[in-house]
Write a structure and sequence with these properties.
The chain is built from 4 helices and 16 strands. By secondary structure, the chain is of the alpha+beta class. Keywords: Cytoplasm, Fatty acid metabolism, Hydrolase, Lipid metabolism, Repeat, Serine esterase.
Amino acid sequence: MANEPRDPMPLEEPMFILENGEMYRNQTEVKMSQIVLPCHANYCGELSAGQLLKWMDSTACLSAERHAGCSCITASVDDIHFETTIGVGQVVNITAKVNRAFTSSMEVGILVSCEDLFSDRQWKVCNAFATFVARRTEAGKVQLKQVIPRTQAEQMEYSIAAERRRMRLIHAEIINDLLSSCCSQTVSECLDYQDAVPAERTRVESVELVLPPHANHQVSTFGGQIMAWMENVATISASRLCNAHPTLRSIDMFHFRGPSHIGDRLVLKAIVNNAFKKSMEVGVCAEAYQGGEPLRHINTAFMTFEVLDNEQEAMHVAKDTARACGW
C-alpha cells in the first residue's frame, strides 16, 4: 500500500483572484491526471518511479512548449525527493508551469500529488524544477518572451529561479571536482572495512534499443524514457546490495549532455557508490552509440534508496552490507 501522510493537503484551486478582483490562471500551466494501473506498478504494487518520471517530464515539456510556442527539449531536472509512494488505484495529479524564462531556456516548476478517490483527499508526493531549452526554428535561435509573475507565489518562484539557474551551471563542475578528489582513494582503503561489499557485485549494465515508441514528437529519445531506464538499472544495483526491494527516495539532478535518436543503442550502467545506516547511493549513467561509433555521454545521476518496513519506515541496512567501495 502507498504511504499516506497523516495530514493530507486540500485539493489545489485552479484559479486565483487578484487584488483587483480579476480571475487569473497561469497561461503556461499544464495539468495531467493519471490513475495508477497494475501495468504502472512495481513488485510492491506501487507506482514505479520511472513511470512517474516519464509523466513529470511530459507535463513539464507541454508547459515549456506552451510558453515558447515551439519544440523544447529537456536539459536537466533538479534534485527530487519523493516524500511518499503511490499505490495502484490512486490518482497522480501533476501540475507544471514556467517560473522564469531566460534567453532560450526556461525553468518549469513541477508539483506532484496523490489523490485517494474514496476519501477525496490529496497529498504531496514531490516537487521538482526542470530546465527546458527551446529548439532552433527555421528563423534561427529562439528568443523567449519573459514571464510576468502575477501572484505572490509566482513572484517568489520568479526571483529564486535565477539563483537556482546559477547553481545548475556550477553543479557539473562541483561533481567533477569531487570525483577527481575521490580518485586518490585506493582499493586497499575501501577494503579496510571488514564488512565491506565489493562494489563490483552491485554493478549493472543494460542495453536498450531506441525504437519509435521511445521517441518524442521531435523524433529524439524521450527524456522521461531515458530517466526511467536509468531508474530501472539503479534499482537493480541497489537490490543486489541489500537483497531486498529498495524504494527510491531522492535523485541528485539529471543533466542531459546530448540527445539520442531512434536506432541508438543506450548503454545504462549503475553501481552502488556507498551504503549508510539506512540508505545507499547508486551512481547511474547513460551512454549512446550507433554502429561502430564511440559512446556518447547522455546523462548521469545519483539516486538514494531505502528499504522500507511494513510501516513505511526506513530499515537499517544489514551489517554485512553496510559499506560498499565507491565507483
